[in-house]
Structure to design on (995 residues):
């Protein structure tokens, strides 16, 4: 009897005028569902004002019929029994809107994929169809009219990090109608690319390319550059962030922006952590960046001022420790061989590699050209560097065999790329997550590589994962594409309508919902001791609803009472 | 004279992403696709590495959004035949073939397939199953509207057949549709024509086309696909499931002269496919250099290694056949002169990625160049990888360089960034 009491909605829910429209979908529904029977049963229900059928409700003719019928019968709620909501929910919502009824007061019930197509027995399919329509009829009086909202948005952007990715993003973003604030913690722009001698595979001067970009940034009136500066706080959401920046002169700047681009680049693994490479212990063992510096300065020299006669280049330093391939080391090690062969044509060069990772159309040729210059490629593992009387020895294994050690005068180590040292702080400040390897986590590994789960916060270049220069530039441009398309100057934002809401009176402030929200859409109100949903950030996923122990949260259009009514009737 | 409409050539994952982003920014987009469906190569995958997400489920919401978007005009069965003008002012001619099925009236019920008396090999399924002359390439294809293949349809061969028309309840079949030539005015062009697979038959030692147990990666992909020719049941031509499988990497790498970037990961993915459905199957991966760059791929490799697979580094490899058993003949670096053997009953060849066969024609139409491998040539490989020598024409995805889905999507978004800053 308890269930029975729930069948009839109380009070003015009885006053609703509900129309039911059954689509035949040509033969698709009509052939396997007895629509006459459906109409006979449904029209007898007291809450139903009108029941109609149409051959194909989604056709132009069908939509016109639906609109006119809604208006003629002065309906307040609509149920359409047709196909999957994926197919035509939006179609019929539009019809409702044009007929002057709020589209959220409509329910589409799927009698094609869930009845006609999957139940062989016509009588059973008909019975199921009636049951589903009854469930929708039970739900629809409890639905609420929801309205679209609009909020103001600022088009301006803050870019954190002035390396090649940050510079490229700033330049593209600052094209006339928005301001870009470029914040760099070092005293100059240019990042790691500034420390390189040449860029592979064309072996062009790196400094030419990076200084050109820096000059363009400095001359762009829409870009404000702050070096020696740090972003200390970012609050808000897409279109409406407020960032605090501690600047050079120890002043605090407050910036109002619409989006944040994180281009904080990378750090390099500290090789001293892996003693077997002898770095810091033996002379003439250098890191990749130290070797770049040597080349930028013009000469490859040993500590004693002489030119090395043989150089070993060691790939994959720290790959095992970090657990990933840094993607760029194989190719820049090939570049190093080219540096050496052009400065010291007679020097012997040995590349000690594990797996040659040279993806894409440009690099195999670069590898073959490099090899042709007389570079030895040795596939090796378990490398250990030893020293005796100033001679360095590379001890290594190949597959299972131990091979003859190789003596060299100089060693260059290619350490793994790792997230920047302040990645943890930035992740916490921006409420974005860190994924594999500690790099910032993209929104989707395939389809959303530069977005994060925080709308309006973007990640580019090596902050997102190890990448080479062209990929970093592409990602920077990709962020510009995303920002141009979502933050249009003068245009308001339309946030999701079906968001979650928390009823203050029921919330006990346990904050379980905060931990499951991946969009950072819930915050804790310290004064009231309750959790609050930021409706602009909420995407209506419903995670928080499931986590709430006190039943204080519901998602609009999927409230507990709506779902309960529907399920109860479907199972009756 | 600045026109800010955009023409996008190719409705694969790269073209779809660019279209949606531009359309949401309020731009009119013409999306040109030479097949009858959207989704390109990605919808042939059952799952994508490394998160093993269902590829069609991943892409379907984007395809739906595309089809419903007011700012996007999708032109299927279409090809660009002429381009004149420059950035901000291009005039484009498009040859649009008739579909002979009305996109508005058709509801995708598929009732017209059964009556069609013509059966031909389904190219989408790599020829592993048949389709009718009125067809969609596979279940779930979007738009879910068939097309009539005029090369095989009896009516277009002069016969008086109209069985499909008679079976249609919605008057959707329209033999009077005509091929059209359209003239479009756009300000910029994105080329997202994707890739083809290297034909492994060109390298005789792999035995492809000769031994029945040797499959290309795409063939295996479709055999595994739940909407494919075997409804996802992994079986050999004799109907039995394979007991041992060899997966060979780098097929065609030497011939093409570059590493195709995604094959190592795709080959590792096959272990997950195989072990997921045939837990007892023996698997060997034969590779040359493992190319798994980036923060996530090694983790996938480590996980795959624990699933019961021999990952063998080899130098020379050859597939032979003795008494119906396939034999992998290979040597390793340690003992290059010694040939080792392994018997298997299925071989999967991971073929190189190569430019689409019509890349040359399109390059001529657009007035842009191709590099030595046939991919469209970028303006500058390091700092301008999506620009071409012609301002306003951009190249993205595998049309520019072999790359994974993530990098293709990023390039599409980047091209949109460039275009929205210019126009």
């Amino acid at each position: 009897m308890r269930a029975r009491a729930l069948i009839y909605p109380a009070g003015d829910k009885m006053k609703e005028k509900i129309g039911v429209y059954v689509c035949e979908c040509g033969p698709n529904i009509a052939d396997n569902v007895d629509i006459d029977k459906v109409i006979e049963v449904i029209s007898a229900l007291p809450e139903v004002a009108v029941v109609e059928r149409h051959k194909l409700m989604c056709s132009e003719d069908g939509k016109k019929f639906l609109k006119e019928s809604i208006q003629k019968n002065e309906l307040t709620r609509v149920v359409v029994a047709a196909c999957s909501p994926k197919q035509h929910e939006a179609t019929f919502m539009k019809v409702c809107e044009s007929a002057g009824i709020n589209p959220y007061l409509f329910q589409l019930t799927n009698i094609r994929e869930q009845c006609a197509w999957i139940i062989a027995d016509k009588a059973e399919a008909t019975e199921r169809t009636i049951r589903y329509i009854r469930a929708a009829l039970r739900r629809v009086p409890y639905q609420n009219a929801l309205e679209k909202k609009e909020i103001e948005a600022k088009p301006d952007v803050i870019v954190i990090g002035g390396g090649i990715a940050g510079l490229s993003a700033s330049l593209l973003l600052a094209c006339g109608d928005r301001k870009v604030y470029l914040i760099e913690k070092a005293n100059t722009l240019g990042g790691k690319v500034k420390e390189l001698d040449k860029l592979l595979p064309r072996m062009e001067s790196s400094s030419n390319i990076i200084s050109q970009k820096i000059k363009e940034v400095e001359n762009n009136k829409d870009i404000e550059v702050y070096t020696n500066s740090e972003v200390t706080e970012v609050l808000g959401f897409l279109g409406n962030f407020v960032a605090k920046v501690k600047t050079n002169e120890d002043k605090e700047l407050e910036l109002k922006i619409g989006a944040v681009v994180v281009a904080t680049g990378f750090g390099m693994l500290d090789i001293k952590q892996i003693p077997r490479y002898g770095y810091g212990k033996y002379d003439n063992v250098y890191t990749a960046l130290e070797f770049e510096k040597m080349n930028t300065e013009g000469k490859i020299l040993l500590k004693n001022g002489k030119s090395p006669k043989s150089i070993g280049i060691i790939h994959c330093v720290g790959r095992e420790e970090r657990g990933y391939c840094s993607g760029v080391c194989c190719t820049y090690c090939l570049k190093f061989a080219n540096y050496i062969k052009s400065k010291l044509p007679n020097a012997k060069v040995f590349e000690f590699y594990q797996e040659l990772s040279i993806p894409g159309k440009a690099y195999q040729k670069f590898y073959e050209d490099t090899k042709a210059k007389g570079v030895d490629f040795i596939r090796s593992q378990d490398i250990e560097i030893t020293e005796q009387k100033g001679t360095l020895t590379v001890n290594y294994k190949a597959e299972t065999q131990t091979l003859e050690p190789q003596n060299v005068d100089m060693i260059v180590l290619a350490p793994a790329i790792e997230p920047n040292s302040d990645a943890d702080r930035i992740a916490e400040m921006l409420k974005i997550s860190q994924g594999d390897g500690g790099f910032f986590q993209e929104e989707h590994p395939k389809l959303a590589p530069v977005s994060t789960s925080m709308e309006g916060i973007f990640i580019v270049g090596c902050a997102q994962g190890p990448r080479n220069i062209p990929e970093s530039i592409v990602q920077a441009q990709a962020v510009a594409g995303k920002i141009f398309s979502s933050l249009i100057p003068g245009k308001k934002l339309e946030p999701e309508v079906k968001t979650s809401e928390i009823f203050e009176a029921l919330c006990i402030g346990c904050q379980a919902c905060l931990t499951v929200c991946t969009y950072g859409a819930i915050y804790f109100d310290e004064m009231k001791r309750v959790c609050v949903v930021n409706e602009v950030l909420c995407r209506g996923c419903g995670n928080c609803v499931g986590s709430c122990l006190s039943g204080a949260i519901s998602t609009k259009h999927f409230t507990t009472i709506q779902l309960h009514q529907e399920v109860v009737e479907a199972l009756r | 004279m600045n026109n800010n409409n955009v023409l996008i050539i190719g409705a694969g994952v790269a073209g779809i992403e660019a279209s949606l982003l531009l359309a949401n920014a309020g731009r009119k987009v013409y999306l040109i696709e030479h097949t009858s469906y959207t989704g390109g190569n990605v919808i042939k995958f059952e799952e994508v590495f490394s998160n093993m997400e269902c590829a069609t489920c991943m892409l379907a919401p984007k395809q739906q959004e595309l089809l419903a978007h007011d700012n996007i005009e999708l032109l299927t069965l279409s090809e660009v035949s002429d381009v004149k003008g420059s950035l901000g002012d291009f005039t484009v001619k498009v040859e649009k073939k008739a579909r002979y099925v009305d996109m508005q009236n058709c509801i995708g019920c598929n009732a017209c397939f059964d009556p069609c008396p013509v059966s031909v090999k389904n190219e989408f399924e790599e020829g592993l199953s048949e389709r009718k002359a009125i067809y969609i390439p596979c279940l779930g294809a979007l738009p879910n509207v068939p097309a009539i293949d005029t090369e095989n349809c009896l009516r277009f061969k002069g016969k008086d057949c109209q069985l499909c028309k008679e079976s249609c309840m919605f008057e959707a079949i329209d033999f009077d549709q005509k091929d059209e030539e359209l003239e479009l005015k756009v300000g910029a062009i994105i080329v997202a024509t994707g890739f083809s697979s290297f034909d492994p038959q060109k390298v005789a030692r792999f035995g492809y086309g000769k031994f029945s147990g040797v499959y290309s990666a795409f063939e295996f992909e479709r055999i595994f696909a739940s909407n494919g020719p075997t409804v996802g049941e992994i079986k050999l031509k004799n109907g039995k499931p394979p007991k041992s499988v060899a997966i060979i990497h780098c097929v065609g790498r030497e011939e093409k002269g570059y590493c195709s970037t995604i094959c190592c990961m795709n080959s590792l993915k096959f272990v997950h496919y195989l072990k997921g459905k045939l837990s007892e199957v023996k698997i060997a991966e034969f590779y040359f250099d493992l190319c798994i760059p980036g923060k996530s791929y090694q983790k996938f490799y480590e996980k795959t290694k624990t699933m019961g697979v021999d990952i063998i580094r080899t130098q020379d490899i050859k597939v032979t056949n003795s008494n119906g058993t396939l034999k992998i003949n290979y040597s390793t670096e340690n003992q290059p002169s010694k040939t080792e053997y392994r018997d298997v009953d299925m071989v999967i060849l991971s073929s190189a990625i190569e430019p689409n066969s019509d890349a040359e024609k399109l390059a001529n139409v657009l007035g842009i160049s191709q590099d030595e491998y046939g991919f469209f040539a970028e303006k500058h490989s390091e700092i301008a990888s999506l620009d071409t020598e012609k301002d306003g024409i951009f190249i993205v995805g595998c049309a520019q360089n072999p790359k994974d889905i993530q990098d293709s999507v990023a390039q599409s978004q980047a091209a949109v960034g460039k275009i929205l800053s210019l126009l």
